[in-house]
Amino acid sequence: MAGPEEAAYSHGHHSSVVSSHARRTAKDSAAFLLPHLQAHFTILDIGCGPGTITADLAELVPEGKVTGVDFSESVLDQAHALTQDRGITNCVFETLDANGLPYADDMFDVVFCHQVLQHVGDPIGILKEMQRVAKPGGIVAAREADYKSFAWYPEPEGLEQWGEFYQKTARACGGEPNAGRYVRSWARGAGFVDANLQSSWSSWFYIGDSARNWGESWTDRALKSDFARNVLEHSVGTQQDLENISRAWKQWATEEGAFIAIPSGELLYTVPKPPT
């Protein structure tokens, strides 16, 4: 999800990116939120991408409704097709940007974003909007990766360079690659009350098939996605560097026992009710 004009979505929507995002589920990406859901809830999923998490949430609120929003029409076409294939009828998708949400105040029981705040120029502003459209007593929830905290093994030289390039490229695009460590601070900057704010961390851990999927994805992303274009456009590295990074991910994906841990910071905020 792109943010204000000074920020751009650094990953883009190449098939290697979207297919990786489509492997995400509510269970592995929103476990901190799931115990708080009720069957009748209305949910807004901001930056929903290909809709796999959105669809899972819809199945968990069968008497409610889920609205997934993203700025990319093409990725929302995929999300809509997914819900049709799964026979999900309480889920809709809308094309829009998260800045200045076109919804009334106090409209949703849950307002959720996953791996969105790291890509926008004004994460505090997005959180303010999320709180505005959440009902009093409702929930604002977010989960953001922290790229500097990633750990992987084996450690071919090109992956260290990938990490350095990712940091520089994300910031050149106006984002914050280590958003996980800042998400609570951003929430406080948005006026969230400490007493109602819960913080946590969780991690994806990829090994075996999931590690191979990740490595194969980045083998292509290093050369074909907007990450590659941004590396070159912002003079972060050269085409040769990108080829070296791609080869490193390809090699890593074939190594027996290869793994990667991807930590994310989480926040869950209960919107205060007005005094009676």
UniProtKB/TrEMBL annotation:
Family matches, as SUPFAM superfamilies: S-adenosyl-L-methionine-dependent methyltransferases
Pfam families: Methyltransf_31
The protein, known as: Uu.00g034430.m01.CDS01
Family as reported in the entry's similarity comment: Belongs to the methyltransferase superfamily. LaeA methyltransferase family.
Molecular function terms, GO-annotated: methyltransferase activity
Residue segments, region Disordered: 1-20
Native source organism of the sequence: Anthostomella pinea
Annotated ranges, domain Methyltransferase: 39-167
